[in-house]
Amino acid sequence: MSEGTEHGSDRRHDSRSLLRCAEIFDGLEAALLEEQRALQERQPEPLIEVAERKRALLLELQAGAPALADLPQADPALRERLEKSFERCRQLNQVNGGVVAASRGATEKALAALRGDNHGTALYDSHGDTRAAGGTRPLAQA
């Protein structure tokens, strides 16, 4: 087999590997969109399945990561597809992370209010006046 033929075969293999990476990114993008819907609708059940699917896709992407080293020499259309898909996944992941952080913060504030731990936060008392939270107060008053 000549050197040119071997090199051509390697390029087809690299191209197939990069194409598979693009397909994985497409699947990851779909999973991130599904995750976003579940977070916005406050549906925790689908999140477990989505997390498992994302994990499997990321493991597959990790296994194919060496092919990404050939991205600069890849077909321009494939390179652009991968770059755009990666950017969309990055943005979706960032938005989803923000939603999770905001939800966690709201939950922690609510729990702190129930425990009476939220010092410095203005609350309304039974007369409609604001006062700083903290100190002792009953959860219910007869």
Give the CA-based shape: elongated
- Count of folded domains: 1
Q: How many E-type strands?
A: 2
Strand content: under 5%
In words, what does this structure look like?
The protein is mainly alpha-helical. The chain has a single domain, classed as Methane Monooxygenase Hydroxylase, Chain G, domain 1 (Up-down Bundle). The chain is 70% helix and 4% strand. It has helices spanning 3-40, 44-64, 76-115, and strands at residues 122-124, 130-132. The termini are far apart.
Please name the defining characteristics of this protein.
Methane Monooxygenase Hydroxylase, Chain G, domain 1; 142 residues; two-stranded antiparallel sheet; 2 strands; mainly alpha
What layout of secondary structure does this protein have?
Layout lengths: L2 H38 L3 H21 L11 H40 L6 E3 L5 E3 L10
Antiparallel strand pairs: 1-2
Helix pairs in contact: 1-2, 1-3
Give a quick summary of the entry:
This protein is mostly helical and 142 residues long.
